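The material for today's practical consists of a large collection of protein records. Read left to right, the backbone structure tokens trace the chain's path through space. An example says more than a description, so a record of this kind follows:
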Amino acid sequence: MLRSSLLALGALAVASTFAIAQQSGVSLSPFVTFRPDAEASPLAGLSLAITGGPLSLRASGHMSMHDRAASNTFATPTRPWGADADAVAYLDSYNYNQHVLFSPYVFAGLSTAAVDSGQYRVMHQGWSYGGGLMTPMGSAFGAFAEMRWRMSQYVLPNSQSALPATREMRLGVSFRVGGGGTATEIVHVLSATDIGSLEEAPTNRAASRVLSTAENYVGVPYRRGGTSPSSGFDASGFVRFVFSMLGVNLPRLSRDQARVGERVRPDLNALSPGDLVMFQDDGGINHVAIYVGRARIIHSSETGGGVRIDDLNSDRGRWFLEHLAAARRVLPDARGMLLDLARGFPSDVSSNADGPDHAPRVPARRRN
């Protein structure tokens, strides 16, 4: 059973193209549990998980799908059931062409197992641990298989007083019923990150790809008219390059980039990670950045020495807040198809490139 189930899961993984594992949000997962050493197998159940980044809190309950026959202990038929509260940690996903094939994970938590008859209830508390694989089957669906070892006491598996652990094989599907920052705000402790990291609960996986791609070029020097990491970037050249890596062709100039995509109110309360933010200087829009979250932007700045992350709440960042003029939401196509938004806009800007920003200059010794 275990071998055939894992082979089936592997086949699903090869056919999948999108990931839901590790996405922030709330998910429901109906499942079936098989206990090789129990006559009450299988059991049907449902779990609820709240996810923030690579961590999840998961609560589940399950019940036998049929009654256990009367025995010497119980004069009437009984029905086993149980409940678990687990902490789940997702490990590095296995990817192919930027698509997640499957994500392994491990878990541990508290467990309750019970047997009910018409007149009696026998309960056991303990803990359990195990691991599994999650594979995506769409933008909001996935399938999983996991093996659990259940301890009937709060002791280590190798303790002299420990009873043998019981094994369970769980198969199920998972679908998201909520996502983005909402769930992360509820369990913000799960997704708290260092100020220098760009992985901050983006609104969806496309935004996460934008931010992780942009982060790779922090430190590339500023050059007016620059469009590549080898020669340097100006502000719009950096944004255009990042999105081109994800299949989105943007106009070359920041003022033209402010005319594509979905309009967003230029207010920190309305912005989401991955949004483009435009700044007005010298009489018009002349600078663009990518919003990271928590009042931070990543951009190529002449006064910052190149590609860097700036905090808008800092003394330097307040210049950008005061000059914030527009915001647009342009995310890579969810199906991985090319998205050309540059049609009708000039592509040759050698004589009309974006000029430098005029924010307070960062001392050279602090730019790295």
Summary: The longest strand covers residues 99-116. The chain has a mean pLDDT of 78. The two ends are 54 Å apart (CA to CA). The first helix runs from residue 2 to 15.
